[in-house]
Structure prediction request, 459 residues.
Amino acid sequence: MSSDAAPSRDHEEPGGHEGHGDHGHAPGDPCAGPARGLWSVDEHLADVLATVRPLDPIELQLLDAQGCVLVEDVTVPAALPPFDNSSMDGYAVRVADVAGATGEFPAVLTVVGDVAAGDGGLPEVGPGQAARIMTGAPLPPGAEAVVPVEWTDGGTGGGAATGMRAASAAPEGAAGEVRVHRAAGAGAHVRRAGGDVRAGELALAAGTVLGPPQIGLLAAIGRGTVLVRPRPRVVVLSTGSELVQPGEELGPGQIHDSNSFALAAAARDAGALAYRVGAVADDAESLRATIEDQLIRADLMVTTGGVSVGAYDVVKEALAEGGQVDFRRLAMQPGKPQGFGAVGPEQIPLLALPGNPVSSYVSFELFVRPAIRALMGLAELHRPVVRATLEADAPLSSPAGRRQFLRGRYDPAAGTVTPVGGAGSHLVAALAHADCLLVVPEDRERAEPGEELDVVLLG
Prediction:
């Protein structure tokens, strides 16, 4: 069967594909696969990325563009902020009128009105005058600085104020006198026009991923829509008649479907819109029908399970005919059996991953995540890789000729990595406690404590 309930390592096919099948590669093509039938990790990844192309740009409303990649340089049409405005609640004043002001000898100014955010008609501040002003309100003509309300008596004639009463409850605050207890220099507590960005400056460059701050900037400069590459739509489905949805009771020989949940979450984490399909039974016709139904909402399809050599490996049975999907063996552990091709009239890329939980997740990180990010048009496709010192009680063994990916915990302060759990590809609990993949290269059959290895950082 092809599901989460699999042995501790991927099934080793005795024969396997000799090359790439009918997938469109010419003889001598460096992506055409090795003649020996085993593909390297790098060859398989290169084949995937050679097929995947960035999605066409579309114009989206700002909130719909969150998480998308900008495909145009956005320049600032008008200065931000567009006018001098107050950064504090207080009083707009002339510098000369408050020079030398102290608590003992305050400057007494005549209040000539209120200036609230959004006000158009502004009072002019002349000698000996002040205007009560709110945060974000435009600086009125004649004023040169703002003194915070806490530096004044708030117009009460008493000690230092702690705030202003609401204008509706105390309209008299917009008139009368105010005592200022501290001096203020020119421009104090004033946000100058263009102090954030000036007209004509570059606001965001093409290639920027639009997160909340970028969306906020676009809104601030008046952009209602933006040209982006949309987030890829990724359909994830698992196969196996033994799979039961979480929350449902298990029968004899059944297990809960975990792969489709893990991979759908991983697709979201990579930036995609993920659609999880309930587990498909081990029936080739049912699987073909499900895939056909899902193609309408897919930019990329991911299956898990059914790619090895068992009698019920349904993905291989359903998709190998006609050369739509090429099933191959990779020189890696976990994740030796893999499938890749294009399906449907629109030739939607499909990656068929193994069914063991760790195998499917490692395969996703190595092959599907870069494909998703390529669809998005991102320049950086891969997880960060660092070098770390192996911290272990004993040497780690690795199969000859295979690149092994072990779960680990990375300590950035110490520069060390510690294995988590064993090498079994069914050990999903260990995967949940790992934050990296520890890589033992193909030419090594053991890794000694204290030596440096590549570490792929997750999350």
Q: What stands out?
A: Helices lie at 41-51, 95-98, 212-220, 259-270, 284-294, 314-319, 357-376, 428-432.
